[in-house]
Amino acid sequence: MSPAVLIASIYVFALAAFLGYQVISRVPPLLHTPLMSATNAISGISLIGSLVMAGAKYSQFATILGFIAVTTATINVVGGFGITDRMLKMFEKRKPAKAVQK
Amino acid sequence: MSGLHYFTEATYLIASLLFILGLKMMSRPESARKGMFLAEAGMAAAIIGTLIDQRIVSYEWIIGGLVLGSIIGAWMAISVPMTAMPQRTALSHAFGALAAALVGVAEYSVHGGNLDGITRGALGFEVILGALTTTGSLIAAGKLQGIVRGTPVQFKGQNALNLLLALSIIGCLVATFLHPEMQAFFYAMTGLAFVFGILLVIPIGSADMPVVMSLLNSYAGLAAAATGFVLGNNVLIIAGTLDGFSGFILSVLMCKAMNRSITNVLFGGFGSVVAQAGSESTGGVMREISIEDAAVQLAYAGRVIFVPGYGLATAQAQHAVRELAEQLEERGVTVKYAIHPVAGRMPGHMNVLLAEANVPYSLLYEMEQINPEFPQTDVAVVIGANDVVNPDARDNPKSLIAGMPILEVDRAKSVIVLKRGQGRGFSGLVNPLFTKPCTTMLYGDAKSSLTGLALAVQQL
Description:
The structure holds two protein chains of two kinds. By secondary structure, chain A is mostly helical. Chain A contains five helices and no strands. Helix content of chain A is 78%, strand content 0%. The longest helix of chain A has 33 residues, at 60-92. Chains A and B meet through helix 1, helix 2, helix 3, helix 4 and helix 5 of A and helix 1, helix 2, helix 3, helix 4 and helix 5 of B.
């Protein structure tokens, strides 16, 4: 990695951290469980590193590790988004609370 | 750069934007679900963009992993009950972190000594964070599921051992950085990090799990961000950092809600120390109440506040409490729910359970909102909560939880505490609320007590 790339990466990191703080501190405590499960699913993006490892035929060892990583990262992504949706559906379906309650 | 490469990079940019937009839409329950659809679309775009990468020469292992992972993931998403949400989330952290750790090890095994110093350093962080989050999350999941003992596991010299391990890991990292030819250090570091994750979580009691969960969430994200540094991939850095910061913010919020520092939670062994300190009994008598009497008290009240705790989750009583609340509302009683930030085993745990039972979320109140309302409340019903309603935290500066913000149920005109038995709660602390003159105890399984109450109210 060249120093220029490193510096660019650090910029991205710092800006994402700042933006993340701004965005996430606005999420109400009501939704903290879905938030955790959603960010967890999003961090399953490490799947894209696993994909290359599993498919590039570097070595048998790397392929096997890549395969396991693809599997666990996919569990993370599919399971995480699936369960987040299940939770958010419960919060979405009754909007004007008192109206439902007559 | 080839055209395909530009296409891949474009999908990553789109994915990054969609992730951020998706999380932003989580600030309101009405838009949260749509936001997640956007995030899912972003993820799909990034995966497709990666699959056309020219370094990929064969697809059988990729397809195998994707299919297997999707089946297991979908099964988990559909089958896990809401009450088991903390365990599931911990397990999911473990899976994500393991992927990051394994990719790191594979990357090192392939490129090893050819990598430059900075990349080796980033790789080290990726593998350390990934490995310790994997085992740490597995232990946390085991504790939450009850497979691993929930009380803190402590032994003599524990902190010294942890420190030694941490220093060894850092030593290996430095060695990997300075001496690329000595690969043994890298693998030793990986192994030690796996062990370290176990040791980090075993001394932490189940009641402190909200903080641990948030921290592990943060580590898993940072591991992904480190992967991004290794691969020079911005979408990984962005997504990982978002996750890392989200977890960090939640840990800080949880610590604040317990008036404790992160170090105290991680190394304090809370729950075992308390058991000894709490053994001096305060005396005082707990008054028991029958279901019929409690039902009368509730049915003729003007304002009732329910205070759920972890006991609600273990008894799976979320539907029963909603049925009782509806019975009361039909009689004109005003019903609200008071949610302490650390009630349950993960941030927002109680909200999810009550939402599952169709309780409208406008009836769920945060601690600061509801505390001024307790003095005008006729009956506060505490369901399987203990420390979060312990007035000692406010009144007794010597108490081990002194200074922890609490739900001030003791200011209500009367309190009914639903409790499994006469024993102490998880933390082992004496709770003076239980012996106050305004408090009555309703013993038994929370679910059957609540169902019984609903029936009794109906028959009045």
